[in-house]
C-alpha cells in the first residue's frame, strides 16, 4: 500500500488560506475612458491638463485618457500608474505643437505608450487665440522647492509640465521638480 506524501506546514497553511479566500469576490475599479475638452477658463490660461492611466504591472499596457474625476479616484491605487500633463491650447500653432511634442516625448519616458496616444494630434484642442500667458521663469517662482538635475525613479513622477518659455519640467509625488531645457536627457540617464 502506498503511503501519502507528507504535506509541509507551509503547504498546509497555504491550503487553509486558499480555502478561506477561494470564494471571495474582488472589486476592481476600472476608470471610465473619456477625452475631456478644455473649459473657457483653460483657454484664458492658455493650457489645460490631460490625465492618463496605465496598468501598473505591464509597461506595454495601453495608455488611456480619462477625465480628472476618474484620475482623482485612482490616485494611490496600486493597480494603475497615473500621469497628468500640461497641454498648450492657444498661441502660435507651431509653438504649441513644439511644446506639446516635447511634453509627449518626455511623458513617454515615464509612461511608455503615451506618445502614441498623443502623437495623432499635437494640436488637439488648439485654437488660434492670442497667447495671453505672462512670460516667467518657473525657477524664480518656486524658491522653496529644490530643483534637481539628477536621476530619479520614474514610478514617482506625477506630472509632466512646461513653463511659459516652453521648457519642460517633471513633478514627482514628493513635489520635487526636475527642471531642464531638455528633460529628455535626464530621463535617458535612467
The share of residues in extended strands comes to 15-25%
Overall shape: elongated
Q: Give the structural class.
A: alpha/beta
> Could you say how many structural domains there are in total?
1
User: What is the helix content?
Assistant: 25-40%
- Biggest sheet: strand arrangement: 2-1-3-5-6-7-4
Runs in which pLDDT lies below 50 for 5 or more consecutive residues are 135-151, 180-190
- Written as H for each helix and E for each strand, in order along the chain, the element string is HHEEHEHHHEEEEH
CA-based gyration radius: 22 Å
- Give the mean pLDDT: 76
The DSSP helix count reads: 7
The N- to C-terminal Cα distance equals 61 Å
- Number-wise, the strands total 7
The major pleated sheet works out as: 7 strands, mixed
Task: Describe what you observe in this structure.
The protein is an alpha/beta fold. 31% of the residues lie in helices and 19% in strands. It contains 7 helices and 7 strands, in the order H-H-E-E-H-E-H-H-H-E-E-E-E-H. The chain has helices at 9-21, 40-45, 68-74, 93-110, 114-118, 138-141, 183-188; strands at residues 47-55, 64-66, 80-88, 147-148, 157-162, 168-172, 177-179. Strand 1 (47-55) and strand 2 form a beta hairpin. Mean pLDDT is 76; it is low at 135-151 and 180-190.
Amino acid at each position: 500500500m502506498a503511503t501519502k506524501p507528507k504535506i509541509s506546514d507551509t503547504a498546509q497553511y497555504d491550503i487553509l488560506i486558499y480555502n478561506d479566500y477561494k470564494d471571495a469576490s474582488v472589486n476592481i475599479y476600472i476608470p471610465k475612458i473619456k477625452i475631456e475638452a478644455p473649459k473657457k477658463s483653460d483657454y484664458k490660461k492658455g493650457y489645460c491638463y490631460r490625465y492618463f492611466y496605465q496598468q501598473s504591472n505591464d509597461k506595454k499596457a495601453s495608455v488611456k485618457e480619462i477625465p480628472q474625476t476618474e484620475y482623482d479616484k485612482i490616485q494611490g491605487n496600486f493597480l494603475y500608474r497615473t500621469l497628468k500633463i500640461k497641454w498648450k491650447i492657444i498661441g502660435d500653432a507651431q509653438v504649441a505643437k513644439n511644446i506639446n511634442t516635447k511634453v509627449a516625448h518626455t511623458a513617454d519616458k515615464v509612461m511608455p505608450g503615451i506618445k502614441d496616444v498623443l502623437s495623432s494630434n499635437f494640436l488637439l484642442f488648439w485654437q488660434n487665440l492670442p497667447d495671453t500667458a505672462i512670460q516667467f521663469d518657473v525657477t524664480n517662482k518656486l524658491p522653496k522647492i529644490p530643483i534637481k538635475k539628477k536621476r530619479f525613479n520614474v514610478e514617482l513622477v506625477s506630472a509632466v509640465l512646461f513653463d511659459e518659455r516652453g521648457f519642460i519640467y517633471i513633478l514627482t509625488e514628493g513635489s520635487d521638480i526636475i527642471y531642464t531645457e531638455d528633460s529628455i536627457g535626464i530621463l535617458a540617464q535612467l
